[in-house]
Each structure stands twice: as structure tokens, then as C-alpha cells.
Design brief:
alpha/beta; binds D-xylitol-5-phosphate; 8-stranded parallel beta sheet; 18% strand; globular; binds zinc ion
Length: 230
């Protein structure tokens, strides 16, 4: 069994005030965030629009934190390079999108950045399993993609267990990420299931002090890992 990866918290800027993103980034950094998560939506793959490479570039100029770019778009192959050039460190695409997943993985790696493969709550683990030995991250969505502030779907947790088990079996030290409705309570459960990367939107930026929110989330994921299922 591999030593467990470090547990990382990635605030999602989708829940921040877009007119004051610089403040949100500074506060997340000061509170000990390990990465920033940027949700890109095209109005096709999901019924919402957010932002494109220009915003990622502006965020890149303000922080040294790794940028985890979550592409909720139909054609990740077409946009991989613009998001890499904008400063993304990990490009996370959906296996349900139109592009061929294997080709996206190859293309992103060729661009010299990390790649993550994401599945929606209703997509079985078997859809992403064949990529387990090639990707740097498997992202299990715990809400239907498109909007922040939704409630966590606990029925996705067995997919977190399965992803962690498969990565262990392959001797890969990739992250299993959980995204959507992550609160102290659900973060603890996801950590217990084997998640190592936690995307948090509303629980960081909507209500309370950002540093205190991050401190509580950190304590929860450490507690969860201490009682992990493996
Ligand atoms: C949903 C996005 C999530 C979302 C998380 O489509 O992928 O990253 O912003 O926000 P919360 O934590 O509020 O669910
Ligand atoms: Zn996301």
C-alpha cells in the first residue's frame, strides 16, 4: 500500500465575488489553501456559463498556488492548449464530454501539465477506470455540474473508494478529488473514503471568515483520513 498523498484543499473561485477576485485569492492563500479550483462552463456541457482562459490568466498573475482548471465543456481537446497557456497546472476534463478521453489525456500531457478525469454523479466508475493508469487525478463529482452551493450526494462515495483502490492497485499516487457540496461533514466522509483533494466553494467563500472556514475544513479532512476505510 502506498503512503497516503498529502490532503489538499482547493477553494473554488466560482463561489467568490468575481468583482473582487484579487481579495478572494489573497484570503484563500492567507488561510492556507493548497490550490485554487477554477470552474469553466460552456453553456453546452452544463446549463451555465462562467469564464474562459482570460480569467485564468489574470488569476495566474496573482498567485503561485497551483491552478486546477475544471473544464465543464463539450470540447476539452480544442481548449486544452488555451487553458495551459493561460497558466493551468492541472486540466480536468469530463469523460462524458465529446472529445476522446485517451486523446485528451495524451494532449494535456504533451502540453506539459497534469491531467484529471472527472465523472458526473450519475456516471459509473467503470467509465473512468480505464484511464486510472494515465491520469494524475480522478475527480468524483458530488453534485450535478453547473452550479455551486448544491447539496452533496453521499451515494458517490463508493466511487471514491473504488478510485482510491484502483490507484493503489496500480501503484499510482494520483489524487482522488471530490467536488460539490463539500462541507466539514461531507469532507470528513470523503476523506474517510480515500479522497485527497477537496474542492470547496460555498463552504469557503459564502459565510464566515475564509481562514477560519479553511481551518475547520482542514481539521475535518485530517480526522476523516485518520479513520480511513483503508
Ligand atoms: C460545480 C463546480 C464546483 C462548485 C463547488 O459545477 O464544479 O466546483 O463550484 O461549489 P460548492 O462547494 O459550493 O458546491
Ligand atoms: Zn469544479
Amino acid at each position: 500500500m502506498l503512503p497516503r498523498r498529502p490532503l489538499r484543499l482547493a477553494p473554488s473561485l466560482l463561489s467568490a465575488d468575481f468583482a473582487a477576485l484579487g481579495d478572494a485569492i489573497r484570503a484563500a492563500e492567507a488561510g492556507g489553501a493548497d490550490a485554487l479550483h477554477l470552474d469553466v462552463m460552456d453553456g453546452h456541457f452544463v446549463p451555465n456559463l462562467s469564464f474562459g482562459p482570460a480569467l485564468v490568466e489574470s488569476v495566474r498573475a496573482r498567485t503561485r498556488l497551483p491552478l486546477d482548471v475544471h473544464l465543464m465543456i463539450d470540447d476539452p481537446l480544442r481548449y486544452a492548449e488555451p487553458f495551459q497557456r493561460a497558466g493551468g497546472d492541472t486540466l480536468v476534463f469530463h469523460v462524458e464530454a465529446r472529445s476522446d478521453p485517451e486523446e485528451v489525456v495524451r494532449t494535456v500531457h504533451r502540453l506539459g501539465v497534469k491531467v484529471g478525469a472527472a465523472i458526473r454523479p450519475d456516471t459509473p466508475f467503470s467509465r473512468v477506470e480505464p484511464l486510472s493508469d494515465k491520469v494524475d487525478q480522478i475527480l468524483v463529482m458530488s453534485v450535478h455540474p453547473g452550479f455551486s452551493g448544491q447539496a452533496f450526494h453521499p451515494e458517490v462515495l463508493p466511487k471514491v473508494v473504488a478510485a482510491r483502490a484502483r490507484l493503489d492497485e496500480l501503484g499510482r499516487d494520483g489524487d482522488v478529488s471530490i467536488d460539490g457540496g463539500v462541507t466539514t461533514e461531507t469532507a470528513r466522509a470523503a476523506s474517510r473514503a480515500g479522497a485527497t483533494f477537496f474542492v470547496c466553494g460555498n463552504s469557503v467563500f459564502r459565510g464566515g471568515a475564509i481562514d477560519e472556514n479553511l481551518r475547520r475544513l482542514r481539521a475535518a479532512i485530517e480526522e476523516g483520513a485518520a479513520g480511513a476505510v483503508r
